[in-house]
User: Fold this.
Amino acid sequence: MNPILQVKLRFDKEKNTSGFSRTNLRANMDVSLEKIDQLSESLRAVLRYYRSEPQILNNILIDVCYNDIIAKSNRIKELLRPVGIDINDIVVGARFSDAPDGEENHIITYYVDVETINKTLDELVVVKCFIEGELGGKATTTNFNETDKKDDAVRRNLKKENYEKYGLSKSKIRKMIVDCSVVENFSTPRIIDDNSKNDTLLITFYKTELTLSSLLEKLEVDDTKYRYSFYGEDTLAVTRELFEYLNDKVPYLISMISSDLAQVTCDSIDKEISSGIIEIPEPSSEPIIGVIDTLFDENVYFSNWVENTDYLDDIERMTVSDVDKEHGTEVTSIIVDGPRMNPWLDDGCGRFRVRHFGVCANKISTIKLVRKLKDIVNKNPDIHVWNLSLGTDDEVSKNFISFDAAVLDELQAKKNIVFVVSGTNDNRSERIGNIRVGSPADSLNSIVVNSIKRDGNPASYSRKGTVLSFFNKPDIVYYGGEYNDRITAYAPHGEEQVYGTSFAAPWISRKMCFLIDVMGFSREVAKALIIDSAAGWEYKTCTAKNKELLGYGVVPINIEKILSTDNDEIKFLIYGTSESYKTTNYGIPIPKDRDDKYPFVARATMCYFPECSRAQGIDYTKRELSLKFGRIKSDGKIDDINENVQDEESSYVDERQSRKDFRKWENTKFVARILKQNRALKSYEDRLWGITVTSKERLDTQMRNGLNFGVVITLKEIKGVNRIEDFIQACKLRGWIVSEINIKNQIEIYNSNQEEIIFE
Assistant:
């Protein structure tokens, strides 16, 4: 086996140098007079609706229903744009149209003043006249698009004066025509009730000038009649009665509806009990994993390994029974002593100490849960890995992230931590098809773990992704047992045979903690290692096989399988920070064969933890990092192993394709090139290989703070030759620091760093 290498690259920064792009219609798009009339009428219908309603807001909330999944650069630029304001600044939400999976289109909500809407209607009249007078009644790619050809008929016929005689600038008319081509219609926002049976709901409102207190006052909500509570600037926890009242009065103001999840429960499973006296050594300097779960029983044999904190309030504590300590104790038992109880799952990571926080007995409201989560994480900054094996029976929404998942994402974006979250179980008595995961398994920054049987197939209780109809969740799978083939955990009364995603997650928490706290990797690199080990070479060739249930695949049992590689492979780790439009290195010295070719297939996995915005609905992640890796071509560009042509001036890739093929906006990128024939890759004029990480902001154009990323790159020699020493020497010749990852040495370093220094 070859060791994994850690390579410290010197990254360069590149600004966005893309030039001016012409305002043209996309292929197969057109704008007819009928289309202008249709858009104008739908806009007038929105105005009529608000005129018939009591005036609550200064401006108007309006849905722009697009005819595709739309990139930021292709959103409307002139329609509904207030004077002197970037139209993206008035976006307050985004969701998908009600269509079958894979056929959804964008619906983006804007907050616009009435004057701007009337101005848009007047300008649409002008645009209609222009299309009728200059384009024969329809704008098409043939009679409208501009090119660089001097003799092009369009450029001869559509001169500047052809536009100016209509009273609007050439730029404005062209932008409005292009805007019309991507818009299906305008409408008033209206969210359909999720039909939750819970009596308490979480209602999130669009951001306007009104505070929630002001809104309730304007609507004359009587706090003696209705029960509600505030959470944050935009969310209320309300009774169903109050929800129905609000939905009747201001349905257009409600952006999200979900149950308060007063049913956040642990796995409901049958158990087979066995008991006996068990001994365990005293803990010393082992790393600590945080567990947020039900209560912990301090009478178990491994209690010295657990620092237990009861996070229940007095009212919650009144209903506690011994049963309420089972789940939390079982989860923690796997983290502390799982390999002893399950020798076939011995991961080589040893034992871990646990800081256990009992946040509930058997259920808890979402608001209480997130308040406790924030408080616990903030008070324990030394913990890097948190295990959360709680979840809900309700399916997550297709159009927004759950409230508790959003909190997990926020904490991970701001702090150097990672949550490992169970994928939730299907607890239905009759299972027909797979239901979507429950919250908080829709957390994008977390590692979400589903369960498999011993044979590698999905467990019978598996629930499926994706999240927001796009994001790859669960991330991975691990062994969590099956009804007829369980794993062992320890409960207050002894060892138990259990199954569930709750018991798959702690095994991954163990691995993540070992990688971060013992091996010293960043969380970004550690997560990339976990996902890369699960994906392997097989993921590329069977992408669709059980992806919704298995994510990137099964993580190897032994940590050595993650931290080493085959003799014919070179695996190296890269850690960097995106602080500009492009972060690049064009000098990676991949070894060549005797024919001056590159005898490798390649794959790369990148992970990062972006800021997110729940208020933006399906456009949830604020920042995108796009990964390219491959040979440097003669023109200086990268021949990407995933054929990623995004961000290249000569290429256009629509948003739907970018998301499907290149996982745009997802915070995990897996790219690979698998050759059907063992044929070496040619060298372009003796150039080397390169890597680029391109950053895009969702709404803002300015770069935010630096965003860390971790990349795992694997090269497999097509003829089985071990070329790792060639790579190490070539890197050193370039002045790079290359370190071989040695588990034994790193454990010794960790233990030595934990020794208490006594001053005499």
Remarks:
- Residues 258 and 685 are 58 Å apart (CA to CA).
- Residues 566-747 form one domain.
- The chain has 19 helices and 33 strands.
